[in-house]
Amino acid sequence: MALTIGFKSIDGSMLATVGGKAANLGELTRAGLPVPQGFCVTTDAYRAVVQAGDLAGTTPDNARRTVLETPVPQEIRDAVVAGYRELGDAVPVAVRSSATAEDLPFASFAGQQDTFLNVVGEDAVVDAVRRCWASLWTDRAVSYRETNGIDHTTTYLAVVVQRMVQSAVSGVMFTANPVTGTRDQIVIDASPGLGEAVVSGAVNPDHFVVDGDEIVEKRLGDKKFVIRSLPGGGTEHVEVGESGDQCLTDGQVHALAVLGRKVQAHYGSPQDTEWAIDDDGELHLTQARPITTLFPLPDNPDGGAHAYFCFSLAQGLERPITPMGRAAFREIAKSAFEIVIGDPASRSYVEAGGRIFFDVTKVLQSRVGREFVTRLLGVMEARSSEVLKGLFDDPRFAIRSSSPTPALKRVLRLARRFHVPVTAVKALVNPEKAVRTALLLEREVLEKSANLSIEQALRQCTVPVLPRLAPTALIGFAMLGLVGKVVKTKPGELQTVLRGLPNNITTEMDMAMWDLAQEIRHDPAALRQFQDGERPAALDRFLARWGHRAVAEIDLGLPRWSDDPAHVIGVVRNFLLLEDGQAHPDAVFARGAAEAEAMIETLARRARGRGWFVRFALRRTRLLAGLREYPKYLIITLFGALRKRIAEFGARLVADGRLDTADDVFFLDFEEMRSSQGDLRPLVAARREVHDREMRRRHIPRVLLSDGTEPEAVHHGTPVEGDLVGTPASAGTITGVARVVMDPVGAHLEPGEILVAPSTDPGWTPLFLTAGGLVMEMGGANSHGAVVAREYGIPAVVGVREAVSRIRTGERITVDGSTGAVTALDRPVEVSQSPVDA
After folding, report:
1. What is the pLDDT of residue 703?
2. Are the C-beta atoms of residues 287 and 109 closer than 8 Å to each other?
């Protein structure tokens, strides 16, 4: 059992013995980089003093006290003193914690355990080691491990003892830009004295950004404080007054950049480093760890510049998609590329961080592509449209094709193949029959898919649905647009026409859920069952019709409501609290429909001689626009059927002893699922670990460049003072209490509260029935949340940047769905919160 190990004998494979920080310092030392000499007090020493299992069962305060009061065994003391003496006679050292769960690719643990600087003397070093051990049980360290899903009982602490660099200037260096994500930029923060001033945020440092051989940004801080070593041990904070001088020469900035690139090259990934320059001008590397906040990059075989649009986020999914869910989308993408561009092997579909992206490089390099995609996203996901427009002047994405002819030929070919003109004309002439024809597709899709393999069903029964249905819905919206040309309208008037739309499958589902609540409310036996946690027959009937739906339902790998009805039960419980008859969803929906009809008459009268056309057009809008939701519904219906077939494979793999549970099959792809031999459990375990890690990721880029840059982080647009501004989505103004909800499952929303969410899909929409208004970070005027908000007549603003972080639960806000403004009125009031509310 080794109690101490010198840096030269440590490598990256020794994480369990020396912890993350020491493993990295050993790696850097062995690579010949300028690391100050030192040694590590191993986790074996920690285990000899501390029983982690015992400490995990008590409070952080008691755990720390136990460690501090436990004597250090003589054997460990002797080993620490021997290691210290090898560094020199009473040499000043830095004593740093090095946990086994630290400096990992997914969790840096930066600042979670303690560091002691300028420690001098044998007794002082031994005491600092003990205090480092105790710091594993600080409140912040315990909370950090819990947040990152790391078991306290499997986390141990080693301690680094390293010669102090008496720094003339020091700081931190990132080998990729941590704000924009750009992998080619090195970012350096520097200040005189010890680096703790920069790391702790006590000083406003000098800031440098190096791109290649050029310093592209230089921002000098005031550097009012300096942390210095004291003779005999310890440090002092000295206020030196504001300094406008640059604390690093340009030559030192470039030397640091060269060192940073060497560190990154050694690890093969971007690194967060700490460094120091002593009075003699010698550069030292004191720490390195992975940058954990960078979003992973898609594979880029050709090495060129690419722009990727996040499809997952545009669909309302911040969470990663399961491996089986992504396997399904790969099949769908093959079909889409074959139908649209004639190339099923196109590389435009890519994955990163468990999310789905599309390579839009060629779109940006085409004049027609730019116009089409940004206009489409303008009504579906407005923020993404703006971010892509910001790339128009980037020379890497300059227009290479200006002719509309290829795109026109492609559109005409698709129109002929799917009989789009005929479908559109039929919808215009006889909208009622067009609706009946569209609704027959559900049976056709399910019957066809039953005779195909799962992959064939995904390719043949998903993408063709859209061109068969889209013309019918688009005629409805086209009529609405024509009326806007014929009649001068005020903001929100045309949106009013879309309230209470018939033939909307999502509205039908929501109303069925409301009817379920009313059936339970008026049946004493069913209500008693429901309150006792049992399932009344009414719930089973609802699930028989709608059980294939789910929150985040575009992920084939996630349970449907029929698998886990917890969300439905939670929504019904909320509905049962709704006493005001005027606020009942059926009454709200009926009022919306009446307001829409009244608006049609208002606009018709305003049009005078063209009133007949306004009535003709808007009646078709009312009948046809609701079908917008139907293509996705058909795909989700198909997913429900295919999920059952996949689950059967899972059950067989469990019976063969190759999986632990049937649901594990959703962490495989189709080929792996059908493989005839081999234990699949290790593969599933590894993928679950990655998936769980990605579930904790808090930021997903809308658009990502192949060099790691997130354009939205670079181009913020023009700020508007006071209000948050987004895209108007549903007319009207509401003032109320905000409720920030990150996950609809288990969410509690009081009647009249304003729902603030990152994004929504149909699984969220039952919450709309009691919401007074809606604010979303994602989405455009024609996104799913906007459509449903209009139908329910609640004001909505979408595409509001940083809405869930800048608005707080309990805060009174005003939402103006006509102008797109969200205004905060006062500080938050106290409201009850559930775990999924922010």
Report:
1. 95
2. no
Residue 610 confidence (pLDDT) above 90: yes
Q: What distances in angstroms separate CA 646 from CA 122, 460, 665, one per listed residue? A: 64, 18, 7
- For residue range 57-102, list pLDDT tens digits in order: 666 677 778 888 888 999 999 999 999 999 999 999 999 988 875 4
Residue 350: its pLDDT value, please? Answer: 97
Taking each helix axis from N to C end, the angle separating 611-624 and 465-486, rounded to the nearest 10 degrees, works out to: 150
**Which residues are paired to 215 by β-bridges?**
210
Taking the C-alpha atoms of residue 645 and residue 647, their distance in angstroms, rounded to an integer, is: 5
Is 784 an active-site residue? Answer: yes
SS3 state at 815: strand
Gap between the Cα atoms of 65 and 725, Å rounded:
50
DSSP for 643-682?
Answer: HHHHHHHHHHHHHTTS-SSGGGGGGS-HHHHH--SS--HH
pLDDT in tens, 772-791: 999 988 766 656 677 678 76
Mean pLDDT for the chain overall: 88
- pLDDT score for 315: 87
The region that residue 514 occupies, defined by phi over 0 for left and psi between -120 and 50 for alpha, beta otherwise, is alpha
**Count of CB atoms within 10 A of residue 349's CB?**
19
Looking from the CA of 308 toward its CB, the CA atoms found within 13 Å total: 32
The closest alpha carbon to 349, from 317, 401, 312, 295, belongs to 312
Tokens of 110: 């930066």
Q: Are 273 and 108 in contact (CB under 8 A)?
A: no
Phi, psi for residue 430 in degrees, rounded to 5: -135, 80
Residues 6+ apart with CB under 8 A from 35: 7, 25, 28, 29, 284, 285, 286
Q: What mean pLDDT do residues 321-342 have?
A: 95
CA-based nearest residue to 351, from 691, 644, 696: 691
Report the run of H or E that residue 730 belongs to, with start and end: strand 727-730
**Higher pLDDT pick, 140 / 747:** 747
760 contacts 785 by C-beta, under 8 angstroms: yes
Angle at CA of residue 517, ends 582 and 787, nearest 5°:
65
Q: How far apart are CA 360 and CA 382, in angstroms?
A: 16
CA atoms within 13 A on the CB side of 110: 19
Q: Are strands 754-757 and 773-776 parallel, antiparallel or unpaired?
A: parallel
CA distances from 758 to 314, 801, 821 (A): 11, 10, 17
Give the span between the Cα atoms of 284 and 164, in whole angstroms.
10
Asked which of 355-369, 601-615, 735-749 is least confident by mean pLDDT, the reply is 735-749
Q: What is the pLDDT of residue 225?
A: 75
Strands 167-174 and 271-278, sheet pairing: antiparallel
What are the φ and ψ backbone dihedral angles of 294, each rounded to 5 degrees?
-70, 140
**pTM > 0.85:** no
Contact between 162 and 286 (Cβ < 8 Å): yes
Q: Is 762 exposed, middle or buried (0-12, 13-18, 19+ CB in 10 A)?
A: buried
